[in-house]
Amino acid sequence: MGETHGGNLPRFGQGFAGGPIGSPRQTKTSTRNAIGRLREAAKAHPEDAIAWYNLGDALLAEGNAKDALDPLRKALDLAPSVDLFRYDLALALLATGKGKEGADHLDGIVRLDPEFRRAQSHLGIAAATNLALHLGEQGEWKEAIRRLAPAASIACG
Fold first, then answer.
1. At what angle do helices 83-95 and 65-78 cross, to 10 degrees?
2. Measuring CA to CA, which residue among 70, 67, 61 is closest to residue 27?
3. Is 5 a residue whose pLDDT tops 60?
4. DSSP the chain
5. pTM higher than 0.70
């Protein structure tokens, strides 16, 4: 069987809110409903790190970094070894003016292990880049370049 692309989209490009897919009316309503469902899922499963992460990630994607902080912190508390949770929390912290704490989380991702596995990941490179940008904004360019150099050399191969 061949792949089908977009076969499950609503007919005529209509979203669930009644407007064309991507229209402001459809997007706002869909996002609000999705975040409400994610909030319910996290509350129903308080020990599920992924449920908390999904809520925090959706809030962050919506541009609501302040409200994303608590769910992302909860996800990281429940699963402290998951770098993706740490990365999104760092982005939310940076977006809310908590630069030092955000930079510390990015640094936790970027620290190179002896085999450079973390630095080779896209997440490691993104964390190094965001950490360097944050340090640069603070006027710490020398440190920014020092932090970015290992990940950049690995990324360029």
1. 150
2. 61
3. no
4. ----SSTTSPGGGB-TTSSBTT-HHHHHHHHHHHHHHHHHHHHHSTT-HHHHHHHHHHHHHTT-HHHHHHHHHHHHHH-TT-HHHHHHHHHHHHHTT-HHHHHHHHHHHHPPPTT-HHHHSHHHHHHHHHHHHHHHHTT-HHHHHHHHHHHHHHHH-
5. no
